[in-house]
Amino acid sequence: MSLVALIDYGSGNLRSAAKAFERASREAGLASPILVTSDPEQVRRAGHIVLPGVGAFADCKRGLDALPGMVEALTEGVIAQGKPFLGICVGMQLMADWGLEHGKHAGLGWIEGAVAAMTPADPGLKVPHMGWNELQFPADRHAVLAGLAPGSHAYFVHSYHFIAGRPADVVATVDYGGPLTAVVGRDNLVGTQFHPEKSQATGLAVITNFLTWRP
């Protein structure tokens, strides 16, 4: 199987993510090598690319920009060559045009939309949205959700959410005082607001589906 590159730019829960990808690969009999890397040349060698992320949108984007050649390598591999890409949490949010946390900050601009503060309709709901919640999506909505039933539980930790410019790019939602984007996707791009590496059976299924995904 092809190399899977997890981008290390100082903003991800990389140990947990790498272990989850290694487990999914092993249990599925894929033997995909999992590499945590900050080297753009390794990203160019990869067949699948993963961008984790925790923290503030602007800080994560600065960390990514600080790696010489990394954004160019990502754009080349993901946009020009169409390699399968998974963004996790803030890594998913960075796919947007803009992040609106502490000012307006440019994202990668891969999926139309902006990342804004959550404002649940129920004032009793706390922000951040933290803990287990149910994914909502139509059956057969996307290959990375194959085998999962609507209502599958995933683990969330976030205060900002992705407002997609095109409803068709929203793959799954979660209800937290109203619907919030849980998964975005188009073409070879997919992103999860939840943490698959912390989402037990649901997360392992998503990771396995991503590793075998050939968009």
CATH class: Alpha Beta
Number of strands: 13
Low-confidence stretches: none
Largest sheet: 9 strands, mixed
Within CATH, the superfamily carries the name Class I glutamine amidotransferase (GATase) domain
**Adjacency order of strands in the biggest sheet:** 2-1-3-4-13-12-11-8-9
- The fold-level CATH name is Rossmann fold
Rough outline: globular
Task: Explain briefly what this protein structure is.
The chain has 215 residues and is an alpha/beta fold. The chain has helices at residues 14-27, 40-45, 57-65, 70-80, 90-93, 200-211; strands at 4-7, 34-37, 48-51, 85-88, 98-99, 105-106, 113-117, 129-136, 153-158, 160-164, 170-175, 179-186, 189-192.
Description of the structure:
The protein has 215 residues and is of the alpha/beta class. The protein has 6 helices and 13 strands. The chain has a single domain (4-211), classed as Rossmann fold. Strands 2-1-3-4-13-12-11-8-9 form a 9-stranded mixed β-sheet, sandwiched between helices. Strands 6-5-7-10 form a 4-stranded mixed β-sheet, covered by helices on one side. A hairpin with a 3-residue loop joins β11 and β12. α1 packs across α6 (200-211). The chain starts with a strand and ends with a helix.
Write the layout of secondary structure elements.
Elements: E1 4-7, H1 14-27, E2 34-37, H2 40-45, E3 48-51, H3 57-65, H4 70-80, E4 85-88, H5 90-93, E5 98-99, E6 105-106, E7 113-117, E8 129-136, E9 153-158, E10 160-164, E11 170-175, E12 179-186, E13 189-192, H6 200-211
Parallel strand pairs: 1-2, 1-3, 3-4, 4-13, 5-7
Antiparallel strand pairs: 5-6, 7-10, 8-9, 8-11, 11-12, 12-13
Helix pairs in contact: 1-6
